[in-house]
Design a protein that fits this description.
Helix 2 links the parallel strand 1 and strand 2. Helices cover about 45% and strands about 15% of the residues. The protein has about 280 residues and is α/β, with parallel strands linked by helices. The longest helix is centred in the C-terminal third of the chain and has 26 residues.
Length: about 280
């Protein structure tokens, strides 16, 4: 569990805090966090953000309540090694970095070795590519200094998705250096359900439409009338991209190709849903 992982660190417990933000859960999440809060009263704190739904609002709540000069973000389903915090802080300090994205390794949970999970493992989270080509890191593996927030502001809570990219772009525009640290790995479970994967990309499509609405200079304007949004991936390029990183049968390649095509169509549908007002 994520809380166990971030508590069991080699970094001195007196030198960091764990802020767990609940953002409208309907299960026993708050009770679970409270149990850790009782066990580690000087380390763990439950925060509740129930006015605005979304990762941006939850993270902004954590930022506002935090006291440290370096802020570390981790998603609720991720795990890390016990040296994660120690090594990450050392990287930030020794290199005098302001903004750092870590490597993310996708792993398959027991009993969930599906074709969708394999697809997720292959394409995963290319954090280095995000930083070098799109000037942002996914927030679930991000370290940044407080002065970055002081300079550029918080995550945009209007965005259903893509708040990490919009924030990273502001950081880049403000002149802060952005760095990828491959030596620090964080672990994320693969999405094993096709429904879960498609829901994610519907949400990403909605987020892209919101980015276009609120930050038009940051995204290229797509069009539902553009036939390229409905074409499947280029077969040869897709074949090379998947077989370079995994040993696959022809059947698996074909099925993964159709998953990629469904993902593209679902993302376009999410964009159209938000763009034409249904998502308001």
């Amino acid at each position: 569990m994520t809380l166990d992982a971030v508590i069991d660190q080699t970094y001195p417990k007196a030198a960091y805090e764990v802020l767990a933000v609940d953002n409208g859960s309907t299960d026993d999440t708050q009770d679970v966090i409270r149990s850790y809060e009782e066990q580690y009263p000087d380390l763990v704190q439950l925060l509740v953000e129930d006015e605005v739904q979304g990762p941006a609002a939850a993270r902004n709540t954590g930022v506002a309540e935090s006291e440290g000069s370096i802020l570390a973000f981790i998603d609720a389903d991720m795990t890390v090694e016990e040296t994660w915090l120690e090594h990450a802080i050392a990287s930030m300090e020794s290199n005098d970095w302001d903004y750092m994205g870590c490597n993310v390794e996708i792993y398959v949970e027991d009993g969930k070795d599906t074709l969708t999970a394999k697809y997720n493992q292959i394409f995963g989270f290319p954090i280095q590519k995000y930083i070098e080509e799109q000037q942002f890191s996914g927030t679930g593996c991000l370290f940044t200094r407080r002065e970055v927030f002081d300079e550029v502001g918080n995550f945009d809570e209007r965005l259903f998705s893509g708040e990490d990219q919009e924030f990273g772009n502001r950081v880049y525009d403000a002149g802060f250096g952005q760095h990828y640290q491959p030596a620090i790995t964080m672990y994320h479970p693969a999405r094993s359900s096709l429904t879960s994967l498609l829901k994610k990309h519907f949400r990403l499509g909605r987020g892209r439409a919101q980015m276009q609405r609120y930050h038009p200079s940051r995204v290229k304007k797509p069009s539902v009338l553009n036939p390229r949004n409905y074409l499947p991936p280029h077969p040869i390029r897709f074949y090379k991209s998947v077989t370079e990183v995994a040993t696959l049968t022809w059947t698996e390649v074909i099925l993964l190709f159709f998953i990629a095509y469904m993902k593209r169509l679902t993302s376009t549908a999410g964009w159209a849903y938000e763009h034409f007002g249904e998502g308001d």
